[in-house]
Amino acid sequence: xxxxxxxxxxxxxxxxxxxxxxxxxxxxxxxxxxxxxxxxxxxxxxxxxxxxxxxxxxxxxxxxxxxxxxxxxxxxxxxxxxxxxxxxxxxxxxxxxxxxxxxxxxxxxxxxxxxxxxxxxxxxxxxxxxxxxxxxxxxxxxxxxxxxxxxxxxxxxxxxxxxxxxxxxxxxxxxxxxxxxxxxxxxxxxxxxxxxxxxxxxxxxxxxxxxxxxxxxxxxxxxxxxxxxxxxxxxxxxxxxxxxxxxxxxxxxxx
Length: 255
Prior knowledge:
- With about 260 residues, the chain is of the alpha+beta class.
- The chain folds into 2 domains: about 25-165, Beta Barrel (L,D-transpeptidase catalytic domain-like), CATH 2.40.440.10; about 175-240, Roll (SH3 type barrels).
- The protein is built from 4 helices and 20 strands.
- Strand 14 (about 185-190) and strand 15 (about 195-200) form a beta hairpin.
- The radius of gyration is 25 Å and the shape is elongated.
C-alpha cells in the first residue's frame, strides 16, 4: 500500500507540471525540381545548398515531415559498413525523417550531389551537412516539394512565417528598398525641415527604405533622404505585405 501511495504522489504532483517543449522555429525546404535545400531559421532565409534526390525508380517522397533523429558517423546497416568508414554511403552526418527510413545525409560520392541518383534520401556534400547538422534541432520541420521560383515565397505559401526578403533580414520599420538608376544626391534634413545635400551617390547602389511618403522622398536611415520627384533616378521596391504581417504575428505571438 505504501508503494502504491508513493506512485500516486509522483503521478499527481510531478507529471502534471511537465510541459512539452515548443517545436523549433526552423524549416528545411527541399526542392525536388531543382535539387536544392533551403534552410530557414526564426523566419529568416539563411542558405541554399545543392542536394541529390531520388532517381526515377526510387523517388524522394514529397510532403511535410520533421527531423526525428540525428547521428554522427551512422553505421550503414544494410551492408554492415561502420560509421566513419571511407566507403560509408551515409557520409559523416545523418538526420532522419519521421517517415520510413528516409533521411538527409552526407555521401561518399560527392560527385553525385546535384543529380537524381539516390534511393530516395537527400544527399549533401559532407561539409554542407556538417554545417546544417550543427544548426538543426530535433523536430525541425521539413517540407519536400517540386516548385519553381523563390524559396522564401514558397515557404510562405506552405505555411511558414517568412520575415526575410530576397535573402535579407528585414527590420520592423523597413518598408522597401531603392535601386539607383542614375547618379543622384543623398540629403540630410535639418531641424528646420530643409534638405541639405550630403554627397553624390552612384548608379546601381541599393539603399534600405525606412519610410516612403509616395512623393519621391525616401528615408534611407540615419535621417538621410533621396529626393526623386520625377521618379526617374531611382527604382522603389515595396516589401510584400505578407512579410510585414508575418513580422507582426511573430512579435505578438499570434498563432
